[in-house]
Amino acid sequence: xxxxxxxxxRAAHGAACGxxxxxxxxxxxxxxxxLVRPEAGxxxxxxxxxxxxxxxxxxxxxxxxxxxxxxxxxxxGILAALAGCxxxxxxxAPRRRLVGAALVLAFGAVGxxxxxxxxDSRGAVDALPSLAGGAAGAVALYLxxxxxGRAAESxxxxxxxxxxxxxxxxxxxxxxxxxxxxxHGRGGAGGGTDADGRxxxxxxxxxxxxxxxxxxxxxxxxxxxxxxxxxxxxxTADADTAGGGGTGADGPRTAPGPGGGDRRARRTFLAAALAxxxxxxxxxxxGRTLTTRRARGAVTSREALRLPAPASPAPPLPAGSAxxxxxxxxxxxxxxxxxxxxxxxxxxxxxxxxxxxxxxxxGVARPRTYSLADLLARPLVERDxxxxxxxxxxGGPYVGTARWLGVPLAELLREAGVRPPSRGGPADxxxxxxxxxxxxxxxxxxxxxxxxxxxxxxxxxxxLSFERGFPVRxxxxxxxGYVSACKWIEEIELTTxxxxxxxxxxxxxxxxxxxxxxxxxxxxxxFSRPAAGVVMVGGVAWAQRRGIARVxxxxxxxxxxxxxxxxxxxxxxxxxxxxxxxxxxGGHTLTVRATDGTGAVQTERRxxxxxxxxxxxxxxxxxxxxxxxx
Length: 630
Prior knowledge:
This protein is α+β, with helices and mostly antiparallel strands. The chain is 30% helix and 18% strand. Helix 5 (97-117) runs antiparallel to helix 6. The longest helix is centred in the middle third of the chain and has 44 residues, at 261-304. Residues 158-259 have low confidence and may be disordered.
């Protein structure tokens, strides 16, 4: 067998042992997590730990490269790595069963350690799914490896005195071929062995162990003795040994040969592997079913929620707030189209009836705990606000505008006795904690300076979706999301920037991050081929808390030309714009820049998103075609 063939054969056996065992481990862990806490599943906790320890530039690259599919890519990568490890352990296990089982247990221990390291860990109970999965996988591997080893052993050719008929008789272990002589098979004094497994007495002329019933007499002493090899082609196997049967009815039987026993061993192994996989599939399906049932209460609570009318409705959008240019983003972003950038591999499903929000910390004279009903009983405010993710590259998609409904956060803080630093308050940072352990630090001064900072309960006239943070999230206009937009919030703590670094700050992002002035070309798309003539160029620009006063477009290296601005919704929303370009055939680069309400012009200096947001001017290259050319 060639080296490549041996490698492929080992890999196949490893996959047949290791993959069912790994699947069993994951399915058992899934079932245990459904009984304990779905967020404690091994893939989730290991993926979360990987996200926590990934350097900021790598995370930025992942978001830029995979967009909102970054979490799916991570999970697929984890499963692929586990599959590879399972094959390697499966190759080792048939020869080192205990070592293989110990390695599977070690993987379970790694998952348990990852569960305990998560910021939302509930303690030892979160380690149980990984440990249970590791134990189930170790048992499955140990049993499958034993069966695989026996199957491989039965298929291996025997050594001397071994498992099946050999051309030369050794120590009477199997019928040896002899020279042509008598027909019965009883040897003479020369020591031949007859077909019944009995040695001769006089060394007669030997026998041919033919398949049949013919008989013959012993020959002269020593003539044709079976002590030496018979002439090639003069004998056939004994009837008893032809199927892996041994030396005869009266003599010791040999191990099964490749014609029968090894096939039975292989069938036994394959049946066990299939049964293990089927059992694991059942456990996995049961775990998924239980998880879905546990989440049903949250789904039902959201479906039953009826939002009260706002005490302060959003001002109506002014006429002309949207340009009529195909391809430009709609002024209001639908919930399903709103960007999602977070670290949650599993979107939390929170029952609105059991949700609570705690308020405590420095300068909080009257700590409080609120239910959703408490918040809904308060006067609600509705506002159009544009949110932007700090991971948004120049011209990127992670920005959107929605109509948010919520409780003014500053009012809750004042009722609790909180004062901003400008009025002598001891806390300058508000730390919001999510149910998934995320921490987001927001300047107290910004929350209490009069802007519409909200504990939002609704988006575009409906309750928040789970992906958007149901039942309650923070919205603070003018700040990037990583310092303001805590989803699935469950606690607010007042502290200082000197005393506590929030999640992203510990990963080298800035403590304070006001949104930078930005603009984007939505149409024409990069590398498109519009026809020569009037081409409508359009897009959006934003500078929350300052507003947009001007947008300009440049073609190639020409002069800056004013774009037509749509009516401004408010200083906290983006603004649409359009420009009628008389396009000439050939390749052209279109560039846009905005000027905010303070008179500051969008910088042309390009920076990456880390540590406080990207800067630079968006441009697209297009090729204008001549409709009259052939």
